[in-house]
Amino acid sequence: MRTLSDAPTAVLESVTICIPARDEAQRLPGLIADLRAQVEVPRLRVLIFDDASRDGTEAAAVEAIAGDPRFTVLRSEAEPAPGWTGKAAACARLAELADAPVLIFLDADVRVDKGAIAAAVVELRRSRSALLSPWPYQVAESLIEALVQPLLCWSWAASLPIGIANRGRRPSTAVACGQFLVFDAAAYRTIGGHAAVAASPTEDLDIARALRRSGHRTALVAAGRAARTRMYRDATELEAGYTRWLWSAYGGTTVGGAAVGAVAALAYWAPPVAAIGGRGALRTAGLIGYTAAVASRLLARSLERGAVTRTDALAALAHPVSIAAYLCLWSRSRRARRTNTLTWKTRHLEPNH
Predict the structure, then answer these.
(1) Between the CA of residue 272 and those of 159, 293, 296, 310, what are the distances in Å?
(2) Is the pTM of this model over 0.70?
């Protein structure tokens, strides 16, 4: 799997960065500071959309920008139109104002190295892709984060040969992370931009699939040390975040999700049980299976940044507990979907979202 270069080449074409932000007053200033420090991108423009925030996001952004003419802050109090998620609507609004050949979407909680944007654009052009998705390092500081967040990378790294997937156009093998998306703007507009995924709870993955269905290539790379993010700060945020979209995994059906959950439970609970309670060959097989699961978890984590921490190692040893946490989150998400109680950042999500 390729990693963004630590020594980016100068980018001569125009680049517009779009940042949708809702209640991000605490996190957004850090990203703005990172973007103001970017190198090798002389024709850079940054658009920030304050999506009806109630925590002073707009004021925090203006203060952090400090008059930098490359930045523009927009604000809207309007709710998304029926059939649109808030993020997709915000991204579409930003894209309408962008006129550069390269269009980048960043989440407000992402932090980037000073050469990250140039490196991402260079990799987009090198790969000849319509969409490049640099996978940010998922920072995990609390116990629940350490158990759950590494599963994001592990879920595809343990099951998909990325080198082969990047060379193909099969929609089912597309992987993308909406925290950091780099588009060829012309290709983005040929599919209608975010309008193509207006109601999707996983718009990042679905827009990659839409591009592939239209004949374009998409690619996933490791951001390495160029980008990182801490998505959730505690158990409450994490549960709310996953509940919002996890119901849609595996086709969005109860049968599909339950089948995957059953296989995961068998694959990652049976070996440690056999290792502890079995004897002879059964115990040996259990130890081998458990060791393989821990190794896959550590290898996947190392893809994100090239190394693993002590916390990563301890969390990998607790991989069966991580699977239990995932199944619990999926079950809660399905229940919220069934009872029409899905919400995100105080905004109720309609059933078709």
Answers:
(1) 21, 10, 15, 21
(2) yes
